[in-house]
Specification:
Elements (H helix, E strand, L loop, with lengths): L1 H13 L2 H5 L4 H15 L2 E7 L3 H13 L5 E6 L3 E11 L3 E12 L3 E9 L2 E13 L4 E12 L6 H36 L1
Antiparallel strand pairs: 1-7, 2-3, 3-4, 4-5, 5-6, 6-7
Length: 191
């Protein structure tokens, strides 16, 4: 109970995810994001990547660009992009289509929020990229909230389980690409 109360106090103090990004320590950022995710019943996970925030940020973008035509960049305005994504084989709803806006703060975070969708009532989240170990490693957190527009028993629970699975899968893919990319860069540098 006291942990929840202290998290709520920290949220009240920082007030928004923008301020969370400016928190003084990685621990403060993680605590705020965890409390916000809990409040919205978002799915959230994190891991430490053995690569710099720059490598991690670039890997997130690269994975999106290499998505086998499921994710398409509709419009690019530099600090933000309009993205169109197709989802296949989702539990209960099958296929879904979503247009969302990604907003970038290079090497710190990527936020996304739904513009429209045929099946989702909400689709939003944030990649938080926080340096650790003097910038040699990165604490990568992905928070995602999805709400589907269907009226079936346990829809929210099924959606949350599927979303959490997707969050962990995406984190793992970014970690693998970032660490491989770091090794590749180190090999080229020694040649």
């Amino acid at each position: 109970m006291s942990k929840l109360l202290s998290s709520l106090l920290l949220i009240a103090t920082l007030c928004s995810s923008q301020q969370a990004a400016q928190a003084k320590t990685t621990h403060e950022v993680h605590e705020v994001e965890h409390a916000v995710a809990h409040e919205r019943q978002a799915s959230q996970s994190h891991l430490v990547v053995n690569a710099t925030p720059k490598h991690v940020y670039e890997s997130i973008i690269k994975l999106r660009l290499e998505s086998n035509n499921k994710i398409k960049e509709v419009e690019n305005k530099g600090s933000s992009c309009l993205i169109e994504e197709k989802f296949d084989n989702l539990p209960v709803i099958g296929k879904a289509f979503c247009v969302y806006k990604e907003t970038y703060t290079p090497y710190k975070f990527i936020e996304y929020a739904m513009v429209n969708s045929d099946k989702f009532k909400a689709f939003e989240g944030r990649w938080n990229i926080a340096p650790t170990n003097n910038g040699a490693h990165t604490l990568l957190t992905l928070t995602t909230y999805i709400d589907v527009d269907i009226k079936v028993p346990f829809a929210k629970q099924l959606t949350k389980m599927q979303t959490m699975s997707g969050v962990k899968r995406r984190l793992k893919a970014v970690k693998e690409l970032s660490e491989t990319k770091k090794l590749s860069a180190a090999t080229v540098a020694t040649l």
